[in-house]
Amino acid sequence: MPSPELLWYIPNQVLPGHRGDVVTGDHNSLDTLTEQARALEAYGWGGALLGTGWGRPDTFTVATALAARTTTFRPLIAIKPGFWRPANFASAAATLDHLSNGRVLVNIVSGKDNLRAYGDSEGDQAQRYGRTAEFMRLVRRLWTEENVTFHGEHFHVDNSTVVARPLIRRPPLYFGGASEAAERVAATEADVQLFWGEPLDGVAERIDRLRKLSAGLGREHAPLEFGLRVTTLVRDTTEQAWADAEARVARMRKDDNPHPSVGQQRLLDLTARGEVLDDNLYTAPGRYGGGGADTTWLVGSAADVARSLRRYRALGITHFVLSDTPYLPEIRRQGEQLLPLLTES
Fold this sequence. Notes:
- It is built from 11 helices and 13 strands.
- The protein starts with a strand and ends with a helix.
């Protein structure tokens, strides 16, 4: 089995202290973010996810700056179809991929945002995911074909050619979402479907469903691959990890989301099954304000967490996006303790 892709998370945030990170005035300076990216290179990580959302530093700009200051770091650039037109994005990403010697990864995000603030339309779920599917289909064509003409429901181009081509191969398109509409997009258009930290049985069921859906919908690309985005709380011993996890949860305040996504609701519903699932998947953070990848945590020693991640890998997960705070020290700790256990044969 080939080695898995092992990525981290870089929090391009306006406010300091994201998910318990160290509060400093220069938390989102280029020097601070570069220090994290270079630490990822030094400790064996393949790169990092850079999140997106209105009111945050522009993700593509941050990724470009970090690519210019590193040599092997691969930015997984989260983008929203509502932020970009397909041809503009295809050209920008191909240019960065070319200049960075083929290091660009792309994460397509369809979740709701402060749409009116940047001039996007609200739309219902069907409209959002229909637009996402067209965006991915058109960007892929623009990266691989010349003189593209495309007249869809949401996007149109005529005789369009991206001059700067991606280097060697086109950037893979990562995608997330648990709704029926999202899964149809993943099954037909995505290269990698990202899951949040669900239990093994839930991930296995979703992988099986997506594979069957891909076949049923006549997928035209290489087989869909799968990834896991999860918080990994690693300490020297199992006992210390759980003590730190429980202390952190005790400091959290409940922050209800009145309109969670389907994927987020799946994680929140896990608390009804128990506070700890599959040996060390901790569901308590979701009850006290943890959201997204912070809703559930894999907790334990490096050996404990590696064993759990290998179980996901046995199900078909080949891409991992891990993180914990404070970000920089955890890049080092998990790079030294966890990564060697995931890359050994």
